[in-house]
Design a protein that fits this description.
Elements: E1 8-12, E2 19-24, H1 28-47, H2 49-66, H3 68-79, H4 83-108, E3 111-113, E4 123-131, E5 134-138, H5 146-158, E6 161-165, H6 172-183, E7 190-192, H7 197-206, E8 209-213, H8 216-229, E9 233-236, E10 242-245, H9 251-263, E11 275-279, H10 280-295, H11 316-331, E12 335-338, E13 352-355, H12 362-365, E14 372-378, H13 381-388, E15 393-394, E16 396-400, H14 404-411, E17 418-421, E18 434-435, E19 438-439, E20 442-443, E21 446-447, H15 451-454, E22 457-465, H16 470-475, H17 481-495, H18 499-503
Parallel strand pairs: 5-6, 5-8, 6-7, 8-9, 10-11, 10-16, 11-14, 13-14, 16-17
Antiparallel strand pairs: 1-2, 3-4, 4-22, 9-20, 12-13, 15-19, 18-21
This protein binds adenosine-5'-diphosphate.
Length: 505
């Protein structure tokens, strides 16, 4: 466990515990100094306008692409991800940059709005988007480059300065992001503040908007601290994402897709597959095919050779959670069809299929965030939907069927922020869709087109006269009986919708 008094944090490889980097454990005073400096730099950044800011973000994109091999190595060193997964993070961040660099001018343009009725007719009305000066982005350890990128890019494009607090478990990729920002010579509006929980808490205490991704427990603490300061926050928290396999599904596709959805990043994905409900007629066949896919996966520490399918868990604590969920399930009568234990090396845990599980077990009730796929037999669609919704979480779900209309209909019965039909995780790659959790899975959304950048802006309502200033003459002091009666009759005539009421005295 990290001692909050430590000056430096050792970053360890999950593969073998070797120290692969060391970062400062920033104290609260250093955080508030850094945020004060960001605050000073932000007005010049805002005044560049979206096109001017896009120039810098595009330079960052080119830097990321020019350094992608080394960035992949850094990602693997701190996470032990397979290369195929580490290699996705740079292009993903670049896609976010391209999207917001191109669209920010339109998304942030003043909106000229129409009068709602005759009362506001005499004015020109606009909604103006002005950034929160400093946005704090706090991220977890599962996607050390992609997750910071997802939130930092739209916040910077909105015109905010950003204080990024990456996870103390995997801070090295975020440090690289800051290195890239400095190397391209960009304005000093991005600071990476490494450290443990107290550094994150200090960020929450200093910034004007908090975008947090992490556990539900810490998210509640962040929301409380933000509420105390009356600063808004966006929270993307835990999940227990269900999958529903209907009897008419393509079972090979469902088995392959759910193996990937459940085991991608060793299961450490919030929008993921954490439990599977299968209609009784195809249950045995589906379980056999899923087990075959999972058994065939190659696990270990990958290099640049794309030789491994499943990597390690982020740290010992995470591996212990996965082991506890499996052990408790087995003790309560569940069966392990493949996997089921740590491999013995580093923090690897074997890809695991569990059956004979039920809703009393921790592996079905609690977020596992690991390479386990518990499978439950259900009588029909109604039972599947009822069990899928029987959770405090509401992040995402998948439905597997050949009948797409039925899939969409079932999706609308699920209490989750995203539904993928015949695919897993896919909504993550769709930047025009909002990412957000319902229930204890979060508050607000990220991405989703214009709203993904406007969330980092405060809205300002501006009115200006359209013609001669009549309002002042009619409404301002001093009040007089004659004018007052004329105004109140005129207002009645405007808002009434029938003749009698319009002209009654
Ligand atoms: P995980 O262990 O799953 O990463 P956390 O939710 O504890 O889950 O951590 C997510 C991020 O929140 C990390 O960067 C962590 O350092 C940070 N953090 C932890 N405690 C706090 C806190 N009280 N306030 C703000 N950030 C915090």
């Amino acid at each position: 466990m990290l001692d909050s008094g430590q000056d430096l944090i050792d970053v360890r490889s999950p593969a073998d515990g070797r120290v692969v980097g060391r970062v400062p454990n920033e104290r609260p005073e250093a955080v508030s100094d850094a945020v004060a400096a960001l605050r000073r730099a932000q007005p010049a950044w805002e005044s560049l306008g979206p096109k001017g800011r896009a120039v810098w973000l595009r330079k960052l994109r080119d830097w990321l692409l020019d350094n992608d091999i080394r960035l992949g190595d850094v990602l693997q060193s701190e996470t032990c991800k397979p290369r195929a997964e580490a290699a996705l993070e740079v292009p993903f961040v670049c896609d976010v940059i391209n999207y917001y660099a191109k669209n920010a001018p339109a998304f942030l343009a003043d909106e000229k709005v129409r009068a709602s009725g005759p009362m506001s007719l005499p004015k020109r009305l606009s909604t103006v988007y002005r950034p929160y000066p400093v946005v704090g982005v706090i991220t977890p350890w599962n996607f050390p480059l992609a997750l910071p990128g997802l939130d930092v890019v739209p916040a910077l494009m909105a015109g905010a300065a950003v204080a990024l607090k990456p996870s103390e478990v995997t801070p090295l990729s975020a440090v690289e992001l800051a290195r890239g920002w400095a190397e391209i010579g960009a304005p000093p509006v991005l600071r990476v503040l490494t450290g443990a929980g107290q550094t994150g808490a200090a960020v929450v205490d200093a910034v004007d908007y908090v975008q947090f991704t992490g556990s539900t427990r810490t998210g509640r603490a962040v929301a409380r601290a933000a509420a105390d300061r009356l600063v808004p926050c966006g929270l993307e928290l835990g999940g227990k994402d269900p999958a529903i396999v209907l009897a008419d599904a393509d079972l090979d596709q469902a088995a392959a897709g759910l193996a990937w959805g459940g085991l991608f990043n060793a299961g450490q994905v919030c929008f993921s597959v954490e439990r599977v409900y299968v209609e009784a007629p195809v249950y045995d066949e589906f379980v056999a095919r899923l087990t075959k896919v999972v058994e065939s996966l190659r696990q270990g520490a990958d290099d640049r050779g794309y030789r491994v399918d499943v990597g390690a868990l982020a740290n010992q604590a995470q591996r212990d959670i996965v082991e506890r969920h499996v052990t408790e399930a087995v003790r309560a009568g569940a069966r392990v069809l493949t996997g089921g234990k740590p491999t013995g090396a580093g923090t690897f845990f074997e890809p695991t299929v569990l059956v004979d599980v039920d809703h009393t077990m921790s592996c079905v009730r609690e977020e596992t965030f690991g390479p386990t796929i518990p499978v439950i037999k259900v009588a029909d669609e109604d039972e599947a939907v009822r069990l899928a919704n029987d959770t405090e979480y509401g992040l995402s779900a998948t439905v597997w069927t050949r009948d797409l209309a039925r899939g969409e209909r079932i999706g609308r019965r699920l209490d989750v922020g995203a539904v993928n039909i015949n695919d897993a995780l896919f909504n993550l790659f769709a930047l025009t869709l909002p990412h957000g959790g319902w229930k204890s899975s979060g508050i607000g959304t990220r991405l989703g087109g214009a709203r993904g950048i406007r969330k980092y802006a405060r809205v300002q309502a501006v009115t200006a006269p359209r013609g001669p200033q009549l309002q002042g003459k009619l409404l301002w002091y001093p009040y007089r009986a004659g004018r007052g009666r004329i105004v109140s009759r005129a207002l009645r005539a405007i808002v009434a919708r029938d003749l009698l009421r319009r002209f009654r005295r």
